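batch_manifest entry 22 of 60
target: Prolyl-tRNA editing enzyme YbaK/EbsC (Cys-tRNA(Pro) deacylase)
source organism: Actinopolymorpha pittospori
requested by: lab member K.T.
priority: normal
notes from requester: please return tokens only, no post-processing; we will run our own comparison against the previous entry in this batch. if the run fails, retry once and flag.
--- input ---
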Amino acid sequence: MSELPAFGTLKAQAASERPDLLAAPVADAVRGWDPSSAPELQVAEIDPELADTAAFCEAYDIPLEISANCVIIAGRRGGESRYAACLVLATTRADVNGVVRRRLDARKASFAPMDDAVAMTGMEYGGITPFGLPADWPILIDERVADSQAVVVGSGLRRSKLLVPGRSLTLLPGAEVVEGLAVPTA
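--- output ---
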């Protein structure tokens, strides 16, 4: 098993040893993670008041370039809703009305309402992660995330973060790397 690099001032440990720092669906996904095919996931406890990306990065000395956001997108066509998770670096934003809308074959796409995203994922708002999502949702990963040596993502809870090799995220069920998924923020 290879080790992940150190991240800022975070004190990380094996996620499998700290299921108390993971939302229930995330803990289930971590139990099913095969460390022989990818490095073991690590988790770090944080102040839940600092879970939002900018505050988190500043407080824990984490560059925005290695922090990834997981956003839930709802696409609609003909009264039917389809959902996807998009994983993009904090220095970018998902192309919701272009790439994501087309991928969902939707007429209209937007960020899922907070209450819906929380209810459907079983995770806390501000901690949603690609681990443990509903099995029928695609997980769209920007190529910059997949190409990262490691990234920081949510744990399903606001009080912790996961440290994950970017390429390992592509092993998640329903994951696909999508070229042009994200565009740089202004």
